[in-house]
Structure formats: C-alpha cells, structure tokens
C-alpha cells in the first residue's frame, strides 16, 4: 500500500511538472513530436499472422518435447509469442483499427 501511495504521489508530481491534465499523458506518449507513423494497420495484421505461424511451429516443438529437457522453456516461448501477438493487437487498437465482429466476445 505504501508503494502504491509513493507511485501515485510521484505520478501526480510528474503530471504537475509537465503541465499535464488527466488523460493527457498517454496522448503525449502516443504521438511524440507530431510524428506520423509510416506503419499501416495492414502491416500489423500481417505481422500478427507471422507471429501466429511461429506460435504454431513452437507448439509442434512443444508437443515433441513434452516431458523432456526443454519442455518448460518451449512452453515459455509459446506464452511469450502469444503475449507478443496480443500486444500487436493493442497496437491495432491504438491505431483505431476496428475489432472484427466475428472475434468479439459472445458473453452476455
């Protein structure tokens, strides 16, 4: 709890120093110095497909190594690749790319 209060106090101090108001920190971080990215959403979609192909290859290796030396490590490789694909999806979200309705959560 004490650590949380310390971080909160320092963040408030940082925002005051930078003359930031609520929500401005992310805006300032996402578009540094007015630079427009040359990467298009299509590039990120392709990148995610390439990551997915590597995930599938890694899972095949994982199945082969099941119960042997290296099984734990390849499991970590699969997990980190899945996280990378997820973060690339967050890039798409930040770019304003719409989320495909067929992949949306069906929970009520």
Task: Describe the protein in words.
This protein is mainly alpha-helical. It has one domain. Helices cover 68% and strands 0% of the residues. Helix 3 runs antiparallel to helix 4. The protein starts with a helix and ends in a 13-residue tail after the last helix. The N terminus is likely disordered.
Summarize the structure.
The protein has 108 residues and is mostly helical.
How would you name the oligomeric state of the polypeptide chains in this document? single chain
Which descriptor suits the 3D outline?
Answer: elongated
Q: Which structural class is indicated by helix and strand composition?
A: mainly alpha
The largest sheet, given as strand count, sense and whether it forms a barrel, is: none
Q: pLDDT below 50 for ≥5 consecutive residues: which ranges?
A: 1-8, 20-28
Summarize model confidence as the mean pLDDT.
79
What Rg do the Cα atoms give? Answer: 20 Å
Helicity, in percent? 55-70%
Number of helices: 4
Compute the number of structural domains: 1
Q: What share of residues are in beta strands?
A: under 5%
| Count of extended strands | 0
């Amino acid at each position: 709890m004490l650590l949380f209060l310390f971080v909160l106090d320092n963040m408030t101090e940082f925002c005051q120093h930078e003359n930031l108001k609520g929500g401005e920190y992310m805006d300032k971080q996402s578009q540094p110095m007015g630079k427009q990215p040359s990467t298009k959403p299509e590039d990120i979609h392709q990148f995610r497909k390439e990551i997915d192909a590597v995930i599938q290859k890694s899972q095949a290796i994982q199945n082969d190594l099941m119960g042997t030396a290296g099984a734990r490590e390849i499991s970590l490789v699969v997990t980190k690749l899945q996280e990378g694909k997820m973060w690339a999806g967050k890039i798409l979200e930040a770019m304003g790319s719409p989320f495909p309705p067929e992949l949306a959560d069906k929970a009520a």
